[in-house]
Amino acid sequence: MNSKGWKLTDPWAYRYLEKCEELGTQNIHVHKGPTIWPLNRDAFDVADVDEAASAFPHLNFIVEHCGLPRVEDFCWIATQEPNVYGGLAVVMPFIHSRPRYFAEVLANLLWWVGEDKLLFASDYAIWHPRWLVEKFMAFDFPEDIKEEFGFELTLAVKKKILGENAARLYGIDIEAQKAKLARDGLGAPGTGR
Predict the structure, then answer these.
(1) What mean pLDDT comes out for the span 103-110?
(2) Widest Cα–Cα separation across the chain
């Protein structure tokens, strides 16, 4: 294999980001998560996000997987850089396999990064996202996490994470889209659409 990974600070990456600015492409999704073979561990390190976010303040960097297992590094960067957001793919499935770990990671993300900078993601090519949405809607923080972090996982916060934040970043009018769907003839009354 020719590549063992890349960094946002690579010269070709800067050319790409400059072209995105020139074309008006504002949202840049960056894969920064668990290492997969044959990539080196540092291939998904989040340190390069900090420099790129500073160099390109008019671009939004949505860091997929929130840098897991480097979530603490991601939090420090996203707290400092107003144009860095967290994509919750890889984080979300822990809601099933390790709900306590999911609660700890999400609570830290909410405390450090904030509810307005987290976007639902599901790795949908691996599995259908419905079960994640249903589990997330039913999920609540354990009492000790609520007490430690001083907040609750409200419906308003869940709505932001599940779609409102992404809609804001991409300029999507949710109410207009709901009205459009209501007129498309595909939704039956009472289906929740």
Answers:
(1) 98
(2) 54
| Cis peptide bond upstream of 69, omega within 30 | yes
Q: What is the CA radius of gyration of the chain?
A: 18
- Six token digits for residue 154: 């409200």
Prediction pTM value: 0.89
Spatial separation of the C-alpha atoms in residues 147 and 35, rounded to whole Å: 33
With tokens 């609660």, the residue in question is: 103
SS3 for the chain, per residue? CCCCCCCCCCHHHHHHHHHHHHHCCCEEEEECCCCCCCCCHHHHCCHHHHHHHHHCCCCEEEEEHHHCCCHHHHHHHHHHCCCEEEECCCCCCHHHHCHHHHHHHHHHHHHHCCHHHEECCCCCCCCCCHHHHHHHHHCCCCHHHHHHHCCCCCHHHHHHHHHHHHHHHHCCCHHHHHHHHHCCCCCCCCCCC
CB contact at 8 A, 101 and 94: yes
The model's pLDDT over 149-169, given as tens digits with 9 standing for 90+, comes to: 999 999 999 999 999 999 999
**Residue 52 and residue 13 in contact, taking contact as beta carbons nearer than 8 Å:** yes
32-58 as b/e, with b when 16 or more CB fall inside 10 Å? bbeeeeeeeeebbbbbbbbebbeebee
